[in-house]
Write a structure and sequence with these properties.
By secondary structure, the chain is of the alpha+beta class. The chain is about 30% helix and about 30% strand. The protein contains 14 helices and 33 strands.
Length: about 550
């Protein structure tokens, strides 16, 4: 879809933990304006507007669905009562593109259902409701989202009532927002791209860590991106919260078996402690370093400096019907989250459970660079964004590991939605930029072998025709079965869930010859064209949502 830069563009960051939205306009004199869309929500007994919407839904006893801050309040009330069932769904973005189902009160919810409720809420409780329908909507996704995850995101947007929808990768949106902010500064720009810069983008939000390497240069006032690498891990703020909660349990609750509500309470406590200690560190930096984080974390003894301030956070929770006061200081906080940043275990994980336990940012970054033959010394700067960008111990660790300057947007929580809203105002980025396929896509052949259609790292968009001639094995239609992974020998190879098939209107004899062509668009979604040479019949196949997803 070629977007008109004069039209309003709405950008939505459909995040794991929080969702935000923004919109851009173009004045008659060519000035670009981008504004956050405030979202009206119920919270603490009143209604007011916020710039983020918690990506959570809560199913009330009467079946009504609460979204955002109202859902958070209801969740907080429920986890304080160890006898009440867990009635909320959060962090569901991690399951997009899968057949995961959640059952509450006998009703089944899918990741698409939850995403639909969140997007519907954004559409109904912001200024979007008063806009004319003639606008574009750009929804961001992790750069490494596969074709299932992208198709499911588009389906959620369709169900929520959005039209003229495009998908855009989160790392590129964050950088675009940052470059736009920089372009409005007369002096003191943090990034000079008059010559090409190689940027390691680390977008770590509530549920995922998205790694991207972008070569960026400004030519004649236009930005040119060259996408060099992409990697992703289900590693984000919720994992940090869980590690903190686990450490609090280890220190205070030995030998005590926790129910679901109490486990949820510990994770919620981990989030609150993480945020409170991060705020205390930020205040200290403003008071002592004029807000310059690098002036602190570039010092080898930065942790000792902060620890001397004796920052700590306490939370009172009821466990086994007994009130317990949980306390954590800065040094304990850093020790709790360190395994998620550094590669502690050098032995490769033998299964998914071990991988989940051993996952860390250092391994993810080095693996991403290695998979795409990128030397770490070629990186000029680290661009850190997402909610976890506020965590100074994370910044300090990244600086220690890579010794590269670290820059961030003014507001990491809102950078992605603002960048998405700007996509149609900087059309040169899409016209001149190159993108890469995050994973290889393979088609299952009749003999059970796999044929690679698109290699990992192959530039997209791309159109090709499969050389082989195929024959129908069924008289009812044709089904194309796909797999994805690094290559056909990848131990993590997975079957693509969405269906690619055609159904004949009338039964036919098997053995009819046909050819297959395919296209991967710039959003990295794949579609097929099946042609029968005997009569010229042609069918176009997009990925269909599998029934029950």
């Amino acid at each position: 879809m070629k977007m008109d830069e004069t039209k309003i563009c709405i950008g939505i960051d459909l995040g794991t933990t929080n969702t935000s939205a923004a919109y851009s306009t173009l004045s008659v004199n060519g000035k670009i304006s981008v504004e956050d869309l405030l979202i009206r929500q119920k919270g603490l007994g009143s209604q007011r507007t916020f710039d983020t919407l918690p990506s959570i839904i809560y199913i009330k006893q009467n079946g009504d669905i609460a979204v955002g801050r109202e859902a958070v309040d209801l969740k907080d009330n429920s986890i304080r009562s160890s006898s009440e069932d867990v009635r909320y769904l959060e962090n569901v973005k991690r399951y997009m593109g899968t057949q995961q189902k959640f059952v509450l009160d006998g009703k089944t919810y899918t990741p698409i259902d939850v995403a639909t409720e969140i997007l519907k809420y954004v559409r109904n409780y912001t200024q979007i409701k008063t806009m004319k329908s003639d606008y574009y909507t750009v929804i961001t996704v992790p750069a490494n989202f596969n074709t299932d995850q992208r198709t499911d995101t588009m389906e959620a947007a369709r169900r929520a009532g959005f039209e003229n929808v495009e998908l855009y990768d989160e790392p590129k949106a964050a950088i675009l927002s940052f470059l736009h902010e920089e372009s409005e500064k007369r002096e003191g720009r943090a990034l000079d791209i008059s010559t090409k810069k190689r940027i390691l983008v680390i977008d770590i939000g509530g549920g995922t860590c998205d790694i991207s390497v972008e070569d960026v240069v400004e030519r004649n006032g236009e930005y040119v991106f060259t996408h060099m690498a992409v990697g992703r891990e289900n590693l984000g703020g919720v994992d940090f919260d869980r590690r903190i909660g686990d450490e609090l349990a280890r220190s205070n609750l030995r030998g005590i078996t926790l129910n679901d509500a109490e486990i949820a309470s510990l994770r919620d406590m981990g989030q609150k402690i993480k945020e409170a200690l991060s705020d205390s560190i930020d205040d200290f930096i403003w008071e002592n370093y004029d807000g310059d984080k690098a002036a602190l974390y570039e010092q080898p003894d930065w942790l000792d400096i902060i620890a001397e301030e004796e920052f700590e956070c306490s939370q009172m929770r009821e466990i086994n019907h007994q009130p317990i006061n949980f306390t954590m200081n800065v040094r304990e906080f850093v020790n709790a989250i360190t395994p998620l940043i550094y590669q502690i275990e050098e032995i490769p994980a033998a299964n998914r459970e071990q991988h989940e336990h051993n996952k860390n940012m250092e391994t993810l970054i080095h693996t991403t660079l290695s998979d795409h033959d990128i030397d770490v010394d070629s990186i000029d700067v680290i661009f850190l964004t997402g909610g976890m960008a506020k965590c100074l111990p994370l910044r300090a660790a990244l600086y220690e590991l890579f010794q590269k300057p670290i820059i961030s947007p003014a507001n990491p929580f809102l950078a992605v939605s603002k960048g998405a809203a700007l996509v149609n105002k900087y059309r040169s980025i899409e016209d001149n930029s190159k993108d890469l396929m995050p994973n290889a896509v393979m088609m299952e052949m009749d003999d059970g072998s796999l044929k690679t259609l698109i290699k990992m790292g192959e530039p997209v968009p791309v159109e090709k025709t499969v050389e082989e001639t195929f024959k129908t094995v069924s008289g009812s239609g044709v089904a194309i079965r796909l797999f994805e992974g690094k290559n056909e020998f990848d131990s993590g190879l997975r079957k693509i869930n969405n269906l690619y098939r055609i159904t004949f209107s009338e039964a036919q004899f098997p053995g009819r010859e046909f050819k297959i062509a395919y296209k991967v668009d710039k959003t990295k979604r794949i579609n097929f064209t099946v042609t029968f040479p005997d009569n010229g019949e042609t069918y176009h196949i997009d990925g269909q949502i599998r029934e029950g997803k």
